[in-house]
Amino acid sequence: MATVSHVTIRKRVAFLFLIISVIMMGLIGRLLYLQFYKSVWLSENAVDQRIREIPVEAKRGIIYDRNGRELAVSVSTESVYAIPAEIRNPEETAAKLAAILALDETKLTNILKKRQAFTWIKRKIEPEIGHQVQMLNLPGIGLTQENRRYYPYDNLAAHVLGFNGIDSQGLDGVEMTFDSYLKGRSGSIVIEYDARGREIPNASHRFSPPIDGHNIYLTLDLVIQQIVERELDRVMKETQAKAVTIIAIDPRDGGILALANRPDYNPNKFSEFSPKLWRNIAVSNVYEPGSTFKIVTTSAVMSEHIVKADEKFFDPGEVEVQGRRIHCWKHGGHGSQTFAEVVQNSCNVGFVNVGLRLGRESFYRYIDAFGLGQHTNIDLPGEAKGITIDRAKATPINIATMSIGQSIAVTPIQLVTAAAAVANDGKLLRPQIVREVKDKSGQVIRAFQPDVVRQVLDPSTTKQVKEILESVVSQGSGRNAYIEGFKIAGKTGTAQKVGAGGYLPDKYVASFVGFAPADDPQVAMLVVIDEPVGLYYGGQIAAPVFGAVMKDVLQYLKVNPQLSANSQTGTEQAHVLVPSVINLSVPEAMKELQQAGLIPRIEETGDRIADQIPKPGSRIPSGGGVLLYTMTPRYSTGEVTVPDLTGRTLREASDSLAELGLAIKPVGTNGQAIKQDPLAGSKVLSGTSITIYFE
């Protein structure tokens, strides 16, 4: 009996030992699993519980014009973040934050309950909102400094500058193409906490400073850009066009002096505008150039010695090619004329004849040489290549129509670059938008030198072409581009738009391309007016715009007029500071501008000035025009806080309100402001009139 009992005990001990062994093996297996397979995950979670890393955004580089004037800067702003592990009551915290930040409370609660070390709540908020969040003093909720992009001139050069996203990443324009230089490198603040989420006082906290982005200096000139955009606004108003583009380029180095489109948008509020308005039509849209393309045809036939300037042609009004009749724009034709007169008169029949003489292979060689149908490689996104007929499939009728600027589509930047090549003694340069990149200390990181693509024409040929194009303005279809005292070379263009089924009735593109001075070109420029209402000939509506812009640009660049022998030598024209006339009455504004040596142009009908172009503080040549708007303020809608104007003079009050986009309605004009309506601190919409009582 004792033996049985002893055996039973041994069995039980063995079974217990087996169980203990199994448990030990399981524990060892679990330990190995955690040690070798889950170690990284456990380490990361331990760090997440112990370490809080708060990002510190780098300051984005500044974008300047060629003379160092700021076009895009970064300003500090607050962003709200959360550390969920430190939040004691996610529901209560979400309710308080949602009320201030205008967020969905349920979604915010779910975010705050997630197991994560750090999360953004709302970024780049207004200062007063940030102050309200700070006053709540909520556990696990903090504020950190970030940077918001600000464009001080609003819409100016919007299609060149582009805009940024919420993470300060470039999304369009130079902001996008040079993002790697501008963005810098973010830093961080690392803080160590204990198991209860309390900051450890003597822990090894670490601050990794951000590295700010580099500064970009554009080839743009702020004043020339303002001159161009002033004329764009006027043209849009007068012609009711669908779109307008002006590009000005320095033919000597390929630097873009100004590039602007209408319609446009405000990059400070880009999300409030249709994405269609973000499109830079100067580089992204193609169109049939019409007669402005005849500069290419003229250059090709002169270079190949197909024709001489004094060779005689006869234009009966039409010419037949492969059974199709091509008509001259002038009913009945131009009759007998030299080739120089063919260009002056923009005679289609004459150009068809010389184009057919040139032949397919030679014609295409020059199309390729001028860079048509190819990217110019300008440093702006979304550039189109243009459209050309496949060389192998081109027929004589194709050559004939291409000779007059049909059956080929170009971008505005391609055409002005081609014209600049003629101006630059036949050297085709890559158009450039950036001059140099500098770091914060002013050290040049990258400099852009003139980039010669190829020699398209012989200098002797370009001399003849320049003379012929100068006669277009002095004697031919481009007379409206003439500027007193200067030799202007250029070519008009009027192209009927192509649509489904052929050319569209009553839809035209009017244009003018040229350069000045003709014998020493310093500026080449293209004006394109898409679908104007009423007059649509390039010589009637595009040439005057070219002349108005070029006159002010040459004066600004201090290019001396080429005076005739009978003229007296004049003095260099001075530049004046554009005064602020916003909120002044129309007579007062006109008087002040005239006293400053400027010419006011009034838009709309109203009692007081709502806006002006160029903006106050700009410097433009004496005698330049200032566009004044009266009825419709050109400010974006949105609430503005009314300032306290007590004790200010009429002019001081006017300037203060003008900066905020508000109008003034004075009661009395002498003395100081004693009362105002609405009261200081009130919220009103931009453009609201503030009644001020003076005594």
Automatic annotation (TrEMBL):
Location(s) in or outside the cell:
Membrane
User: Which SUPFAM superfamilies did the record assign?
Assistant: beta-lactamase/transpeptidase-like (SSF56601), Penicillin binding protein dimerisation domain (SSF56519), Penicillin-binding protein 2x (pbp-2x), c-terminal domain (SSF54184)
Q: Which UniProt keywords apply?
A: Membrane, Transmembrane, Transmembrane helix
Annotated InterPro entries: Beta-lactam/transpept, Beta-lactam/transpept-like, PASTA_dom, PBP_dimer, PBP_dimer_sf, PCN-bd_Tpept, SpoVD_pbp
Question: Which domain of life does this protein belong to?
Answer: Bacteria
**Transmembrane intervals:** 12-33
| Main location per the UniProt record | membrane
Q: Where is the PASTA domain?
A: 570-632, 638-695
Similarity field: Belongs to the transpeptidase family.
Record protein name field: Stage V sporulation protein D
Give the originating organism: Sporomusa silvacetica DSM 10669
Question: What are the top taxonomic ranks of the organism?
Answer: Bacteria, Bacillati, Bacillota, Negativicutes, Selenomonadales
Gene that this sequence comes from: spoVD_2
